[in-house]
Amino acid sequence: MDAISQLFYLHGIGYEFTKYTGEQVFFSEDTRKRALQCCGVDTNNEAQIAQLNYDLDASNWLGLVANVSLVEQQSPLLKIKIDERQQNLPVNITVPSLNINITLNNLYNLAVTGEYYLHGVRYIELAVPINEMPIGYHDAAVKVGEQLARTQIWSVPDQVFQVEDVKRTGLSIQLYTLKNKAQLGVGDFNDLLELTALCGTKNMDYILLNPLHLLFANIPERASPYSPNSRALLNPLYISVALSADAQNNTQLNVLMDSDDVIDLLNATDQFINYHKVSQVKYALFKALYNHFELTASNERREAFDKFCNENLSTLSTLNSTEPAFDYYLQWQATVQLALCQQSCKDQGMAIGLINDLAVGCAGDGAEFYNQQALFSEGANVGAPPDPWAEAGQNWGLPALNPQSLQHNNYQYYRSLIRANMQSVGGLRIDHVMAIRRLWWCFETNGHQDGCYVYYPFEHLLAILKIESHINQSIVIGEDLGIVPPEVKHALSTSGIFSNSLFYFEKHHDGEFLSVDDLAPHCLLMIANHDVPPFSGWWCHDDLNIKQQYELINKSEYEQQKQQRIQEQHKLLRFINSHSNKPELVLNSNATDVYAQLALCLAGSQSGLFALQIDDLDEQKYPVNIPGTDKEYPNWRRVLTHSSKDIFTKNAPLLAAIDSIRKG
């Protein structure tokens, strides 16, 4: 293997992949070199390449232990690398925080788990049995003879945190779409609080949320929750003014509520959110809340705020705010209200409660990127290779993390990110979970668009998910739609991570839908998600009409897609009629009746989690997002037509029937 090929391998630059068509695609050397250049490597500098190869390979055998040592919790073995001539030396391992002190007279008779030859010397990796440790991260010191090294032992469970293995039903929502009781234009935590009670009455066990990440207050129309300012902070627009203690006896707030701007918003009946107007009004109200807190807060509340700021200072400080106290206050209020909603879930007896959603990346001009810029590549964005829904591939415009830099400070960045998104919830859905194994990088090579897969430290990132899920008592769902490497599917399954299936895509090779009995058991099963039209819109072809209306497709494409849709509808009818004992449905059947029968069929699956989308229960025709569009269609703005209470009242018989099937 030549030096550049070795560096491709050690740096995680992919060599080939299998396209959705089954074709094996190989990346050119120019493409792979460009990926390395995005990581700051001068591919024409032979000395730099040689040094990097040494640093990423040989040098790992010259220290006793790695910076991070992955240790299975139930059969703990610490891997130590030594010159084989050192086997006669005594060994001492200490973990001060756990009062562990292990001494061995020598290293003979231990399992050799690896070897490496350097300058004629054989180095060996030995598995040293150590004490069982609590799940988590433990600083340790290792001494062999007079050589001392330090490592952080990660005590890793076999699986992520689990709830009792029974079939559970929940609701999938985009929080901002909820009909806002306060009539301030965007669904908020008070609306979520009401929804938790409604779900509790129907024996639901969870509410799956959209990402609640911080967006851009100064550019409110940047509405996509999947292109956030920071994934470790919350979007203040979800704060309910009415839920805040600082709304009580607040003269400034009361005056603002009578202002023309607020009254205009209260009287608005828009189908799509005007984020500029909503943000302008809500931030004025937030300032009134903050001013009231500054003037009247009790010592107890001030101490609670100070405690929040101290505990979260490293994350809060990334805001780079001109008004830090105000922005910290908003993060505190959002966190308090989210926790209140999760507590309500628990009070309702919901086994899981809220499930958060972690976007695959952050915006390239946001707080997360600027504060962690050294961890990111230069000139590479993440996206997806060609697939049936995007033949040209996709560039999501999110900067790509450098897989080598990610290891900085014992993966502190990723650990903090996962922990932040598991706060005050009972579960975490990870968008595009394949990212912990590999990501498709998009970049320019010699002036044209190019891309390849780049691989990440899979074992360590998976270990973080396992550890943090137990620390935070949070289940984990991995969104694994698209091209998924077999090793990722296997690892997710054995790690107890739920996969995520959309019924629309669960088909045999002949295009017919899978039988209910063939749907995956350890899975979050959904009919649709935010990237797929709501069912009523899909059945009535409204999504195609909308695409034509917004000039996303021409008349010829419309007719072609309409015929394809009719074929899909026939397949769906065959699926439903083969699983249902109700009168047969036909192509002109009402969308509501078809959806109800489909939901009842899927309720009978063995899938551990079955989610109904509130958009479908509301019989929405407009999607919240049309993939591949930005300004063409008002993505992430459409609100629900009816209140949550009215939606649950209308669907009460269906929800009761689904609950009976799931619990039966």
TrEMBL record:
<dbReference type="InterPro" id="IPR017853">
    <property type="entry name" value="GH"/>
</dbReference>
<comment type="similarity">
    <text>Belongs to the disproportionating enzyme family.</text>
</comment>
<protein>
    <recommendedName>
        <fullName>4-alpha-glucanotransferase</fullName>
        <ecNumber>2.4.1.25</ecNumber>
    </recommendedName>
</protein>
<keyword id="KW-0119">Carbohydrate metabolism</keyword>
<keyword id="KW-0328">Glycosyltransferase</keyword>
<dbReference type="InterPro" id="IPR003385">
    <property type="entry name" value="Glyco_hydro_77"/>
</dbReference>
<keyword id="KW-0808">Transferase</keyword>
<dbReference type="GO" id="GO:0004134">
    <property type="term" value="F:4-alpha-glucanotransferase activity"/>
</dbReference>
<dbReference type="GO" id="GO:0005975">
    <property type="term" value="P:carbohydrate metabolic process"/>
</dbReference>
<dbReference type="Pfam" id="PF02446">
    <property type="entry name" value="Glyco_hydro_77"/>
</dbReference>
